[in-house]
Amino acid sequence: MNQLPSKLQLRAERKGKKRDEKKRQIAESALSALKELGYASTSLRDIAAKSDLSLGMLHYYFEDKTELIIFCVSMYKREFVRGMSEAIDGAQNRDQMIAAFAEALVRSIIDDKAIHRLWYDIRNQAMFDTAFQPIVEEVESMLIDVVRRALRAAGQPDRDVEIQYALLDGVFRFLMQKQITSDPPPSRQEQLNAMRAVLQGFL
Amino acid sequence: MNQLPSKLQLRAERKGKKRDEKKRQIAESALSALKELGYASTSLRDIAAKSDLSLGMLHYYFEDKTELIIFCVSMYKREFVRGMSEAIDGAQNRDQMIAAFAEALVRSIIDDKAIHRLWYDIRNQAMFDTAFQPIVEEVESMLIDVVRRALRAAGQPDRDVEIQYALLDGVFRFLMQKQITSDPPPSRQEQLNAMRAVLQGFL
Amino acid sequence: MNQLPSKLQLRAERKGKKRDEKKRQIAESALSALKELGYASTSLRDIAAKSDLSLGMLHYYFEDKTELIIFCVSMYKREFVRGMSEAIDGAQNRDQMIAAFAEALVRSIIDDKAIHRLWYDIRNQAMFDTAFQPIVEEVESMLIDVVRRALRAAGQPDRDVEIQYALLDGVFRFLMQKQITSDPPPSRQEQLNAMRAVLQGFL
Amino acid sequence: MNQLPSKLQLRAERKGKKRDEKKRQIAESALSALKELGYASTSLRDIAAKSDLSLGMLHYYFEDKTELIIFCVSMYKREFVRGMSEAIDGAQNRDQMIAAFAEALVRSIIDDKAIHRLWYDIRNQAMFDTAFQPIVEEVESMLIDVVRRALRAAGQPDRDVEIQYALLDGVFRFLMQKQITSDPPPSRQEQLNAMRAVLQGFL
DNA sequence: AATGAATGAGCCTTCATTCAT
DNA sequence: GATGAATGAAGGCTCATTCAT
Question: Residue C80 to residues B2, C74, C83: CA-CA distances in angstroms?
Fold first, then answer.
């Protein structure tokens, strides 16, 4: 049905690429403002101010606030998934897997707590506002997939992978919450122990 | 040290009681609006309109929006905890416990999903706004206590009760989310199965 | 045209007296709240709370907020005028008059600055809201009268008494303002010196 | 230490200039609403409506109501001070000074009574709300400076310049008040006579 | 005579979004 | 492409006032 790519199409495509690149750039900047304040209390003006982006530009590249936020969160979560994938792919047996997976998860809790917090914020919004549902579903299916691969690699059946994901997510979120609201937050070691114990439970 | 209650004291007390009663009444009404739209997108005006309460009255009984919401959520969650307590207290052995606990949890997911959704909303807010932290902490410590009692009754060590809570909460939340966003939502039986399997994992 | 006072009239009169007495009582209480916060930022609820008066009572005795405030201020200012009158009446020559008058004015600046501040607030309102004009006029004519009597007693012509009042009021207000906003406020002695110098200028 | 102004700096500067210009413009509009109703009873909505400005714009240029009002009043009072300065600077001897100063003051009472009324309103607010104190202090120190220069030019000691200012201000305010609340207001000639008499008293 | 619960208009402020340049 | 000035709807909250008791 499609013609071979014409010059016009090519140019349009290149434009699209460039535009996407710019979007990523903007999202990167926006993310740092967003993760600090959360979805509800970050105005586009805040984002513009903190990121040295102009207010107009945000709307030039993104239809509305929702699209921007979805773009930001999904961008980060994709990266997070890649990171986790690498961690479990590198493992050569069940023990290594548990060690590596736990290590990667805890490191992310500590380093990127603010973004995960934002993700949970979005995931919650999705239960009220359907606009967020597609992205949440997409991200969660990637996360579930990571768990599935971990299960397989560990020689476990992957029948109840969704529930395994839910369990793991419960603990991940819990530790992250402690990381943010407890004073002092749990030490890296405590978190590692907890995470390992959990992984040992089903891997 | 105190005199016997004087007439004045008695009257003041009765006033307080009445006021508390009214607060509960208002909260009940507010809850139904809140459940539907969530924290961020429910304005006090929405609540007033949906509940046939006047805007002024909301502020007459509650200092601000935050106090109202905290009151509502905590009121419901307290009741939820009581329900769960009863469920596990009635059980006379491990199997009964698992059955009863799973049953109670799933029933609540189905009947009260909207309120749990609100609870998760508030719990998330708490990571951005410290005003919500005390109530979240209070509710979670009650929930953890329920898990602890279930563990003990089942003859399990309650060392890692917080983590057990986190696991259970992860699944509970996951099923609730599905209940709300999946079409069709998982059947009661599927949920029961999943919940039982999880409980069997650590009870 | 009038009948001789009938029993009914007498009773009504007595009632009126009682009511007036109560109004004075309320005003006294209200004044202490009012002088702290000023006209604009004192709500009737503030007054009720600070004075242990019920909100309903304030409206039971006073038509509206304006009437209450007018009543309060005028009550105080009347007393102030009486105090000043006494001070100058007691003097037996020009020097004593200057000393006594200055002394009384400065004492009032120090002791009652908050009420004078309120008076100046009302006087200012009167330039925007005619409701306040009668009381302001009444009080100022009393104040002018005090100045007139001081002039006469000092053997001065009282032709430009209004202007003399304006001059004196300018200084009085200025010292009061300093008393409130300067840190540290001018000492009693400094104020006395200034006030005496001014009085010497025209008495 | 600074580089020569770069293009960026120049642009930013021009932006700031333009913004300032707009602020002045808005303030000018706002002033006419403010003059009429006074600080307490003018809402930003009133200002917006009367000035054909949008509510949003007021907040776009001014942080809050306080900043707007301070800007307006200080803008006008600065001009007033300049006018007075010119009047006294033009005089070549004491008599000319008295004549010119009185003339300028009375003219302003008649022409700008509404703005002075607003100034006195703000000055009063400052005694209740510290936010207004800096601007009041600034304006008054300019006014005192004018008096000081008049004193010096007339060959008088300027020891008690603050008190002289207070005296003059007392009369100025009194005449302005009469101008607004008396019916009929004092004639220009009466005011001139009064003002001259006062100036003769200390210049 | 006295109370305080209830009202709702009105206030200041925030913010996503639009649009002229 | 990019900007930021301008908009106006909506939000939380305050308050004088009314009224049933």
Answer: 45, 10, 5
How many angstroms separate the Cα of B169 from the Cα of each of A120, A185, B194?
14, 20, 13
Instruction: Give the C-alpha separation, A166 to A202, whole Å.
Output: 12
Q: How many CA atoms lie within 13 A of A189 on its CB side?
A: 0
- Is 70 exceeded by the pLDDT of residue C191? yes
Report the gap between the CA of C35 and the closest CA in chain D (Å): 10
- Give the one of B128, B171, B181 whose C-beta lies nearest to A166's C-beta: B171
Q: Any idea what the CATH number is for the domain that residue D15 is in? A: 1.10.357.10
Please give the average per-residue pLDDT across D81-93, as a whole number. 93
Among positive and negative, which fits the CA dihedral A89, A91, A97, A103? negative
Distance, angstroms, CA B52 to C1' F21?
23
Coil, strand or helix at C157 = coil
B and D touch per CB criterion (3+ pairs under 8 A): no
Looking at chain C, the whole-number percentage of residues with pLDDT higher than 70 is 94
Q: Report the candidate in C69, C66, C65, C48 with the shortest Cα–Cα distance to residue C57.
A: C48
Cβ proximity of C58 and C26 under 8 Å: yes
pLDDT per residue as tens digits for the range D44-55: 999 999 888 999
Range of the domain at B98: 3-202
Q: How confident is the model at residue C2 (pLDDT cuts 50, 70, 90)?
A: low
In terms of C-beta density within 10 A (0-12 exposed, 13-18 middle, 19 or more buried), how is residue A172 classed? buried
Q: How far is C45 from chain D (nearest CA, A)?
A: 19
Helix axes B113-125, A113-128, angle to 10 degrees: 150
**CB distance from A147 to chain B under 8 Å?**
no
Q: How buried is B15 (Cβ within 10 angstroms: 0-12 exposed, 13-18 middle, 19+ buried)?
A: exposed
All residues of chain A having their beta carbon less than 8 Å from the beta carbon of residue B166 are 170-171, 173-175
Q: Mind listing the pLDDT tens digit for each residue in D6-49?
A: 555 666 667 778 899 999 999 999 998 899 888 888 999 999 99
pLDDT tens digits for range D100-142: 999 999 999 999 999 999 999 999 999 989 999 999 999 999 9
pLDDT tens column, C58-100? 999 999 999 999 999 999 999 999 999 999 999 989 999 999 9
Structure tokens given for B196: 């039982």
CB count in 10 Å sphere of residue A114? 20
**Residue B82 phi, psi dihedral angles, 5° rounding:** -60, -45
Determine the Cα–Cα distance for residues D10 and B188; give it in Å rounded to an integer. Answer: 69
- Radius of gyration for chain C, computed over Cα atoms and rounded to the nearest angstrom: 19
Q: Sign of the C-alpha dihedral, residues B25, B30, B33, B37?
A: negative
Total domains in chain D come to 1
Report CA-CA distances (Å) from A193 to A98, A181, C129, C150. Answer: 11, 20, 73, 90
Contacts of residue C121, Cβ cutoff 8 Å, sequence gap at least 6: C38, C39, C40, D124, D128
C40, closest nucleotide (Cα–C1'): F15
Q: Where are the alpha helices (DSSP H) in chain D?
A: 7-41, 44-51, 55-61, 65-89, 94-111, 113-128, 133-153, 161-181, 188-202
